[in-house]
């Protein structure tokens, strides 16, 4: 069983949630256009975020990562208590794989956020990586992702999120490619720390984060409702939401929404 992609939620090119004008859908193989030197990588990143609005920065950096590295997609998530908050992705497919990890509560993204170091799953089709995350590996490969490289965002003391890179064939990143991935992750960290939040932004700032996090707010509301309905602790309530989402072939965001609007009530036991 695989959690199906929801294109209405994740968006196709032109949709503001996925960033629009995505090179992954353009028919152009941007991986053949990778610069061979770090200075060229910096130039690609700088050009990619030029004149971007705050809410577009995560998507733009994900798109730059796809152009710079031998990957087919990228997403960025903020770490949170329970479910990672997806901020941007290079494509609907990359966004969907991020939501698979959020629904399962398992995978390279979750592990990288926990340990604060890169987690590189170079082959999800067989071997150690497939055994380490068997359910995630099955669902990721079902939608064409065969390798995942998760880069922590933050510093040695605090991990604020992850940049997750997806590849449609197994394989390792070279040392130079890993340095480039770290460079993009470092710039992503700086960008996220500099972006305005609704509560402290200036008059001209875009309250972008509150809109992106709205779906995840419903997860926490649903956790509270399940706690009250079933008399369980928060961890158990989240586990039940995840189990129901997996059993119903849905994402945790979808199930949480149904609980909040009282379309769905989880049964005890």
How would you describe this protein?
The chain has 269 residues and is α+β, with helices and mostly antiparallel strands. The chain folds into two domains: 188 residues, Beta-Lactamase; 48 residues, Arc Repressor Mutant, subunit A. 48% of the residues lie in helices and 12% in strands. The chain has a five-stranded antiparallel β-sheet, sandwiched between helices. β1 and β2 form a beta hairpin. α2 runs parallel beside α8, α3 runs antiparallel to α8 and α10 packs across α12. The two termini are 22 Å apart.
Largest sheet: 5 strands, antiparallel
Alpha carbon gyration radius = 18 Å
CATH superfamily of the largest domain: GAF domain
- Give the fraction of residues assigned to helices: 40-55%
Count helical runs. 12
Oligomer: single chain
The name CATH uses for the topology of the largest domain is: Beta-Lactamase
By DSSP, the count of extended strands is 5
Sequence of secondary-structure elements? HHHEEHHEHHEEHHHHH
Count of domain modules = 2
Class computed from helices, strands and strand pairing: alpha+beta
- Termini Cα gap: 22 Å
What is the averaged pLDDT score?
A: 77
CATH class of the largest domain: Alpha Beta
Q: Give the low-confidence spans.
A: 1-32, 199-206
What is the approximate shape? globular
Give the strand line-up of the largest sheet: 2-1-5-4-3
CATH-defined architecture of the largest domain: 2-Layer Sandwich
């Amino acid at each position: 069983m695989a959690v199906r992609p929801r294109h209405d939620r994740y968006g196709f090119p032109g949709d503001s949630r996925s960033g629009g004008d995505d090179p992954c859908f353009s028919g152009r193989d941007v991986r053949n256009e990778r610069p061979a030197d770090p200075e060229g990588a910096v130039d690609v990143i700088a050009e990619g975020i030029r004149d971007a609005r705050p809410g577009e920065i995560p998507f733009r950096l994900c798109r730059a990562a796809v152009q710079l590295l031998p990957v087919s997609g990228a997403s960025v998530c903020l770490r949170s208590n329970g479910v990672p908050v997806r901020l941007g992705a290079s494509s609907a497919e990359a966004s969907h794989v991020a939501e698979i990890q959020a629904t399962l509560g398992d995978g390279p993204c979750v592990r990288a956020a926990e340990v604060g170091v890169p987690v590189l799953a170079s082959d999800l089709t067989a071997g150690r990586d497939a055994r380490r995350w068997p359910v995630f590996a099955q669902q990721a490969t079902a939608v064409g992702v065969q390798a995942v490289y998760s880069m922590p965002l933050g510093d040695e003391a605090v991990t604020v999120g992850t940049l997750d890179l997806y590849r449609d064939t197994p394989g390792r990143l070279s040392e130079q490619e890993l340095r480039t991935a770290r460079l993009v992750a470092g710039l992503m960290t700086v960008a996220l720390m500099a972006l305005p939040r609704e509560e402290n932004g200036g008059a001209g700032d875009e309250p972008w984060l509150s809109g992106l996090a709205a779906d995840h707010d419903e997860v926490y509301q649903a956790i509270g409702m399940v706690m009250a309905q079933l008399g369980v602790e928060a961890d158990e309530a989240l586990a039940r939401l995840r189990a129901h989402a997996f059993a119903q072939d849905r994402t945790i965001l979808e199930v949480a929404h149904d609980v909040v609007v009282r379309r769905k009530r989880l049964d005890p036991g």
